[in-house]
Queue: 4 jobs
Job 1
Amino acid sequence: MGRVITRFAPSPTGYLHLGHAYAAQQAFGYANEHGGICLLRIEDIDHTRCKPEYTSAIYEDLDWLGFDWPIPVRVQSQHRADYACVIDRLNAMDLLYRCFKTRKELPDGVYRGGPDPDEAARLKANEKFAWRLSIDRAQAHLGESDLPFSDEVLARKDIGTSYHVACCHDDALQAVTHVVRGKDIEPLTAFQNLLQRLMGWSVPEYIHHKLRLNPDGEKLSKRNHDTSIRSLRAEGYTAAEVLDMAQPW
Ligand code: GLU
């Protein structure tokens, strides 16, 4: 295999905290140990939650922690057309359908649907819709059966794309060989592998690391300012001390 390429791909929805410091250390560390490189990618397609000031803070905090990365950094919000192309391609393969339902209208558990019987009228009324992947059609396309997935949304009503599409597209585009990310995302990996196979993208290796939880065993939140890297820095901790604090127990 060629050179190892990993990536650290935070979303600028708040300030980075100790959990991110550990995640960054895992992604950059894996690349270093294997003579590879780690890319930084800003996953900011969700304009309802991401803010430019948090993007600037990501650069600043990671730099202060001692990480460095190749430039230019891929900032997903600048590449919406790429993600629209993925949706177009899946549509050309006839693997998607329009879904007008709201979250409340969906049943719990695995969801399998299909085109809305009133689609023409709803389109005429300019109702917003999401594009969902039809697992039935995806199975037929791959000649497989019994795939245990829901018909996931690949293009959200509000942002026109989805985390799955942007993330897998970019991992392929950036030739990421090893995705090093937290165990919290592990349940999504099998679905992302399906998307990669449908798109003919190579499937990277996945390494899901432990999470740095708080003492109560809960995930750290970006709303919990106590553990933000910048507040620890302002309190006078050094980068080495912050990385030390970031280790999971
Ligand atoms: N942007 C995602 C997050 O902030 C990470 C995605 C990934 O590593 O695949 O949680």
Job 2
Amino acid sequence: MDNKKIADLLFPDLKLTEEEIFKKYPRRNLNENQIVTRFAPSPTGFMHIGNFFQAFISYNLAKNSNGVLFLRIEDTDEKREIKEAKQVIYDVLGEFGIKFDEYQTLDGQDIGNYGPYVQSQRKDIYKVFAKRLVEEGKAFPCFCKKTEGKSDVLKLRETKFLDNDDKEYDPCRDLSYEEVKQHLDNGESFAIRLKTKHQGTERIKFNDLIKGELEANANAKDFVILKSDGTPPYAFAHAIDDTLMGTTIVVRGEEYISSAPSHLELFDALDFKPITYCHNPLIYKLNESGNRRKISKRYDPESNMLYYLEEGYPNDTILEYLLNMINSGFEIWRRNNPDLPWQEFKFTPNDITTVAPIFDLVKLNDISKNIIARMSGEKLYENWLIFAEKYDEELATLLKSDREKFVNLCKMDRDGSPKPRKDIYNYKMMKEEFNYIFDRPSSYEIASEDLDKANELLKEYVKDFSMPSSNEEWFNGVKVLAEKLGYAVDNKLYKQNPENYKGNVAKACEFIRVAITGKKNSPTLYTIMTILGEEEVKNRLQISLKND
Ligand code: GLU
């Protein structure tokens, strides 16, 4: 009886009822195979690859089961919330094409019937359930100072299992109505704590969709379910929201396994059906000495999802790499189905790896090289331009100023080539990779003993240079000139008596290549020359002469 009176005293103004709440959140009309899941980030201003990993698993599970994916912003920890942090979440998810069936738009409009999808807008709901637990004697108000900051008394209580009702450890656990009233009349604030029914000696079992059956000590702490400012910590909000919103599977990082017993106790106390967990492994990295450690915000720029956008990785690179991490079978599937979109690769919670994946940038880059190699030149140009428009305005202006030229550059050694080039893994590197197109060479990769020979050949070559009309014509032109100057056109003969020649035709071509691009190796030189145009090629040849 006292409990009911205490509850009314603690929440005098609460109008909302449980009945009204359940009416607002009816059961979803789906069959049992349709997974309802969610991504529930806290707005921290940083999207960690581990969080995104979770979002991506949830996205696939919902999509592959024709289920529902919703986004819930967990912003009850106001100290942590920073401005524009929500924007980062929406931007990153949007960029990578993770679409939600239900969410709240940035300007506050709920899309879907189970909102609000932002926890700070659900405070009354949490209060209704906290009040009910107090009424039922399953929770109690705690007036200890610094309830959330943990006073000494609370620390003691948390480290000692509750095997009695010793008030020394528990000054608030069994307060009478009069005592509660007295505290309130003194103007003291209170938190609500769960009155755990466990002793700390019981073991509980629960099933995890990835890890199978798990066993752990039952919770034995009277943990806070409502802070003194009326906001719920993660555990309480999770139990209520995932129940009301009809979540069928909670995908979350395995760092939550240790607190699962306390979460399950809450479902039980609230008379809710226990939720099904799918604790995904965390992503690790090897350090220099070969030991693994969690990929971290502090040391690894690749832990930040914005990194991949700023470096200009194709979205599919990251998504395919994550699929590799989720299930090693993806690699074989990709080999057998090089042209299918990754969306065709389906997996269930059962297929998710139990082994912690190790992040490897080299492998990610290899995946990226293959993905970019499969793009047409036209597509590559489009993607490069989209990247430049966001991160390098000057480059974007240039790319747009001569579309045809840059499309041709992207097509080089690609469209129609039986062995398309596989050296580009992101859009950012393309500027450096193609620097000979943007800038005249600032240095020449040429051995000092070749300088005179190169100069002689180039002087002749530039004399009546005109743009050849095909690769063959270009090569034949070089051959004729090289032979005239004492180079071997027959490589066999050259190899037999190299001292009889200034070099072979390949050497002559190399001199021209270096004069135009600065480099000994480049994609097909003829193509580069057509992209640069006759005028520019001539200029570069001239300049290289003066340089020696
Ligand atoms: N807000 C929690 C986090 O960001 C969500 C965990 C969960 O998905 O339940 O870690």
Job 3
Amino acid sequence: MRDELLDLTGALKDHILSEKESRSGISRLYLKGNLAMPSAIPVDTMPNNETIHVSSLTLEDIREELGDCTRCKLHGGRLNIVFGEGNTRADLVFVGEAPGRDEDRQGRPFVGRAGQLLTDIIKAMGLTRDEVYICNILKCRPPENRNPESDEIAACEPFLVKQLQSIQPRVICALGKFAAQTLLKTDTAISVLRGRFHSYHGIQLMPTYHPAYLLRNPGAKKQVWEDVQIIMKEIQKEP
Ligand code: URA
């Protein structure tokens, strides 16, 4: 009961924030290639205090800055850094949680069983993996695929933010509870967050279930399909 009340309160807060923002028209000002990103975005309409800036850094620059990263304890157990891959100017970016065993071995995001399902979802949207960008909150595999820890997120998230600033997608799809809650800085359940856009610093963010969850709960594919249809409509709109 308490959890349900917390979820409802969180959802109401998120809804009020996104309503405020859509009335201010901010997200429509933040278009791909528009270097006149408004500098005075009201911070109180943002899920957190940092506004996203348009960056002239390329993904290669950011990869170079990341280097052979030792910023958190995960570096000790990894085989490869999984930076992300896809179209450097993608309209749509998928953000997952963290690399698993297959991703760690190959140095590529979403290449295991969950990755195959994500690839199928992307195809069903009429897109290919090369047309979108795919990355994770964390770039190194947590031991035994445990949940990311706050110090690891703190070390890694700035690089994800830079990637998003560089790509300037129109839509971000947050895959699973972890990605959605981390990006939106909320504890609201994914079942409550999914199904509608939220603002990630002025970018439309759609939370949906993680493909690994769908492997265990195929019944939830219907809701993911609803969510990706909303995304498709949005990216088909004239910018
Ligand atoms: N799960 C994730 O969240 N990310 C991957 O890259 C693979 C599986």
Job 4
Amino acid sequence: MALFVHKYGGTSMGSTERIRSVAQRVAKWARAGHRMVVVPSAMSGETNRLLALAKELAPASPTPQSLREQDAIASTGEQVSVGLLALALQAQGVPAVSYAGWQVPIVTDDAFTKARIQRIDDARVRADLDAGKVVIITGFQGIDEAGDLTTLGRGGSDTSAVAVAAALRADECLIFTDVDGVYTTDPRIVPEARRLATVSFEEMLEMASLGSKVLQIRAVEFAGKYKVPLRVLSSFTSWDIDLQEEAQSGTLITFEEDEKMEKAVVSGIAFNRDEAKITVMGVPDRPGIAFQILGPVAEANIDVDVIIQNVSHDGRTDFSFTVNRGDYARTIDLLMNKVIPATGAAQVIGDAKICKVSIVGIGMRSHVGVASKMFRTLSEEGINIQMISTSEIKTSVVIDEKYMELAVRALHKAFDLDAASIAAE
Ligand code: ASP
Ligand code: MG
């Protein structure tokens, strides 16, 4: 029999009634003879509620001490969830035991509010599994070497589940959530979007980082590093759905490039509205200029994404890049006050109303003309491309935000991703 880790998100754990249904689902797997570990999130809305309480009393700019307390507060949401789920399983007649992160322990570094898991001791969990118990472990939290409670950052329960699965060498980690898998694009924008039965780990990483927020990106990275087979599936099916059917549902994130994947050149269209574009104009074109502009930006801890430097005229050039929209004003300030005086650039202009649209697919490795098909499709829709960036399995363009939906729909169709154009999986 196999060992499975199930992760249930906040919505799945949203009420005692829903928790009872999670318990029934888990009991079904346990009764089929599987060894079961469950990692739940806090009940939906709970982490927000706790953080809002903390905010009322916390200092305006956080200190290491205040962040420590914030984690102590936020981690209680998951603590309640594991206890409730254990009670619900016991009520079904299934032996179950709950653990907080520190009891396992799940040891993290001491970066409060964004801690990283360093190691997991599996002895206690294995002993319980051997004794026939379902083990329920808090998502999102851990303990550092000093014995302080830590949390892994918002959405961190996904990462907890994958890390636990890696530590236990689970056969599969199943992420039960409120969507039934990974789609070719957001179905709210393209109703014809189709669920992918499989997606490669690398594609998933690109799609997660590009804003398809099904899984926390760190969870995907973790799964890749430790080769944890990961499945995203719905917790909104009736709990008594046939186990075999359930075990094959959703989207499996695979490590092998199977034949079917090779046929689909592009697997999905991702988009991201969270960026803004900044252009430094009239920069003297000389060695070291990119560093002079982006060095201070990096020092201020601002992430830079797409970068373009134009050809120069009369010894001057324009230099554009994108940053998270949340860092937009801060970046402009920094450029005006530091970079312009230091470099003698003419001016800085910015545009927050942009978006990034990307085609993603491992098939792009072995096919030519994919990017040019993307550009043609956009030009046929009259959409101007402002910036382009590529990697081995992805091409991204920056365009005016108002054309985002049009671009996504057109590309979805052009690359034959609409449901109707694909034979049954
Ligand atoms: N409860 C935490 C949050 O809301 C962690 C999680 O749900 O994954 O961010
Ligand atoms: Mg989540």
